[in-house]
Amino acid sequence: MPKCNQKTEVYSRVCGYFRLVNQWNKGKQQEFNDRKNYQIKKRGAA
């Protein structure tokens, strides 16, 4: 996988608007890193 070796900007939605995660305080940044992502599989037609 190619790498660009550049810093990326990560945004998260907070209260209806997007904000850069690196502008958050350290505690909120850690909460963001601790989040788990889930994928829900669609069930077949009944």
Q: Which descriptors would you attach to this protein?
A:
46 residues, alpha+beta, two-stranded antiparallel ribbon
**How much helical structure, as a percent, in the residues?**
10-25%
Main beta sheet strand tally, sense and closure: 2 strands, antiparallel
- Could you give the count of β-strands? 2
Q: What structural class is derived from the secondary structure elements?
A: alpha+beta
What amount of the residues lies in strands? 15-25%
Give the distance, in angstroms, between the N- and C-terminal Cα atoms: 40 Å
Can you describe what's shown?
The protein is of the alpha+beta class and 46 residues long. It has a domain at 1-32. The protein has 1 helix and 2 strands; from the N terminus they run ββα. The longest helix has 9 residues, at 26-34.
Summarize the structure.
It is built from 1 helix and 2 strands, in the order ββα. By secondary structure, the protein is of the alpha+beta class. Strand 1 (11-14) and strand 2 (17-20) form a beta hairpin.
Chain-wise SSE layout:
Blueprint lengths: L10 E4 L2 E4 L5 H9 L12
Antiparallel strand pairs: 1-2
